[in-house]
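quick one, 202 residues, struct below
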Amino acid sequence: QWYQRRVRGADIKMMEPLSFSDTYMGGLFNDLENITKAKKPIIAAVNGFALGGGCELAMMCDIIYAGEKAKFGQPEITLGVLPGAGGTQRLTRSVGKSKAMEMCLTGNFIDAQEAKQIGLAAQVFPVDELVDKAVETGQKIASFSKVAVALNKEAVNAAYETTLQLGLDYEKRLFYASFATKDQKEGMGAFREKRKPEFKDE
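---
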């Protein structure tokens, strides 16, 4: 099961009159973090401009696919502010400090090819193939054990939050835990018997 939704960045006209207390006490953008807590993988298919909140939203997703015309950027500096929904943090972890600094301090955009080259996007596709490719990947992921998918996602995301050694230890514990699932027995049994596994998500 997959969902397609079109999104755009924050409404600057709505934000302009806000005060510190409005944004802080109101938790501006806090609800977006729910995206990162989903157990199911989320694929962003970016076709066009992903600037400011749009870029931040894409980075909250698990995989970013870009159409050939896609542009990414954090132009908040041009508005007298900084990214407020993870742009300085996720961008740095994705592309490194120097490139993140350049993008945040200049407001410069990057195109789809550069986004792929520096690790922000996983793949670049022709515009008319982009959504189909994202759906195809989603369907492939959905064909595997949902438990194994969630464990893989959790382990990869842990790399953002921990040191290498803590991450390796955490991965090992999740790996061992996967042996308590019926899908592990089914997957390995199917491999041994040279047949397609029939996962039950248990």
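The chain has a mean pLDDT of 92.
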